Amino acid sequence: MFFQDRKLQELSQLVAQVFEYYHQNCSKKRRLKPGIITVIHTFGRDLKYNPHLHVLVTEGAMDAQREWYPLDWIPYEYLRKSWQKVVLDSMKRRQMMCQPM
Predict the structure, then answer these.
(1) How far apart are CA 62 and CA 82, in angstroms?
(2) ∠ CA(72), CA(74), CA(79), 5° rounding?
(3) Dist CA 18 CA 79 (whole Å)
(4) pLDDT, one tens digit for every residue, the chain (101 residues)
(5) What's the pTM value of the predicted model, to 2 decimals?
(6) Which residues contact 18 (CB under 8 A, 6 or more apart)?
(7) For residue 18, how many other CB atoms are within 10 A of its CB?
(8) Among 86, 76, 63, 79, which residue's Cα sits nearest to residue 22?
(9) Closest CA to 20 of 43, 44, 3, 36
(10) What's the rounded Cα separation, in Å, for the pair 27 and 3?
(11) Which residues have a Cβ under 8 Å from the Cβ of 74 and sit 6 or more positions away?
(12) Which residues contact 68 (CB under 8 A, 6 or more apart)?
C-alpha cells in the first residue's frame, strides 16, 4: 500500500498523535504537550524502498501554564499497540475511500 501511494506525510501526524495521546492521559488536568520531531525516510541504506520514521520526543512535556513536567519512559507495549492501531485504521480509511460504490 505504501509503495503504490507514496504520500507518507500522514505517518508523521499519526506517530505524533500516539505520543500526544499518551502525554495527555498522564495528567488530564495539566493538558501536557510533548516536543516531537518526526523525519520520514523512504529508503534504507541499501537504497531499497523501505519507508520508516525517525522520531525524537522530549522526556517530559509542557503544561497549559508552560511549566515543564518531567515524565518517565513510555512503555514499549503501549507504543507498539498504539502505533499498530493508528496505522491500520489509516489504511482501512484509505481502502474505503478507494473502493468504487
Answers:
(1) 22
(2) 175
(3) 7
(4) 666 666 667 888 899 999 998 888 877 788 889 999 998 888 888 888 888 889 999 998 998 889 999 988 889 999 999 999 998 998 888 777 766 65
(5) 0.77
(6) 79, 82, 83, 86
(7) 22
(8) 79
(9) 36
(10) 39
(11) 19, 22, 57
(12) 60, 61, 62
Cell matching residue 64: 497549559
Other beta carbons less than 10 A from residue 48's beta carbon:
7
Q: Residue 99 phi/psi, 5° resolution? A: -75, 135
Alpha-carbon distance of 99 to 69, in angstroms, equals 45
Contact yes or no for 66/49 (Cβ under 8 A): no
